[in-house]
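User: Sequence in, structure out. Go.
Assistant: Echoing your sequence, followed by the structure tokens.
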Amino acid sequence: MKSTDFFEEAATDEESGDRWLGSDLTKALRFYQKAYKEYQQALANSSDLDIQYNIARLVYHVYSTYIETELLEDLNTDDFLFGDTVVKPLDQIMNTHEQSMNGRESMDLSYNLGLVYIDVLETSQLSDDNVDVLQIYQKGQELFKNLINTQINQLRSFINDLSKIDNDHSSSNEDPQSVTEAVTEEVLQPNDVFDTIVSGYKLIQAFLGNITSIADIPSFQQVVGDFSLFLESIVGEFLNSFTESTNTQSQYLSSVTNNQIIDYQITKAFISSLISQSFTEINNFWDVVPPSAERFMSQSDAVQAIMDRNDDNDSTLWSGLTLITQTLKKAQDDLSERRKTTVEGLGKLNEQYAQVLIQRADIDVQRGLLPLPQAQNSKEVLMKNARTFLTSAMRIANSSGGLRERAIEKAGRNKKKLESVARMCILDKKDEDQIMEIMGSVGPREITKVLKLDYYSALN
């Protein structure tokens, strides 16, 4: 078979994997593995950038879908995942993308590599791996800066062409519909460029997330200063000219959506929070973001990030944890209302709702263990609250997402159910036999994960 034959077979099998994601995660992964092997066979006799790009994109897609979500551990893959597989660790995925670039220009590949850099910086916060976060950030910064400049130049060129076409057709009194027909569909749009700009901000957020003490803040700020100014110098143009309310050429140019703007606002607020010395200083950053579950969950994460790096006393910790649970309550209320009217994506919404309830349980466990009079006086109530939250999380996670629920949504809900049950087993001091009876063979694995959290380990 020729390289092109292997490539076509791989593309077909990858599409089959995408379709099976809706109903069978194992079968989808089987097709992804088959596609990966075929792409490798295609690459054996060719250095075509399309093949290299597809391999890099596929392994990152599998990572994001199966590894990052921890869904792979619940699947039976022994009969097809062996040897060189499509399942790769993040550092190898980064290397695959960098090798595929190798001096060549590809906006899609560049953008994906930028997302990989963000993931590497985010995971470095949670692992003991010796990751050079400064080097990764600097590579990501250079990549996004070049990519954004390229995209903006292409967009401006397209807008200039639009103006010429529009003027030519206006002077000849032709039907405006012909202007639309003259515009190719495969062009870079303002919302695409805005996504890249926001990803640049997310790179900064991921890097700042590696601050481990207040003393580190000035040096981290200095590193991101120039890139922050670069992003600020261009984001205003998109907010002033290409939003749904300001785009005067919306028949030709796709507008920056309200959801994109909110994502930008949340990211900016998070960045400002990470360079604050105390969580008490950050409310003003978040007040500009419209209220939503996503905003309140991110805001609580920002408070937690500041608390994790600061050497706060117990009284300050109590205040911070109380602020987090109050913020999560707002997220819970928003999700509760949205569940009443959501049909499409209800399974994902239930997963998100269960996650908020689990976080509230975790916060009350932490509050109950603090060596403070108010904590000890409230300990029994706080532990009871934690059990109530976990019971609710189990119920929500067990709720079907309806007939349109995809397999990946169902698997995500099941993950939250297991996390809730494992925590409840620890709170109720279940022994190994009882855990096996309640949770089955996955029990020890899930219990081990939860016990990595110091506050649950203290209860064991």
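User: And one key feature?
Assistant: The CA atoms of residues 241 and 247 lie 5 Å apart.
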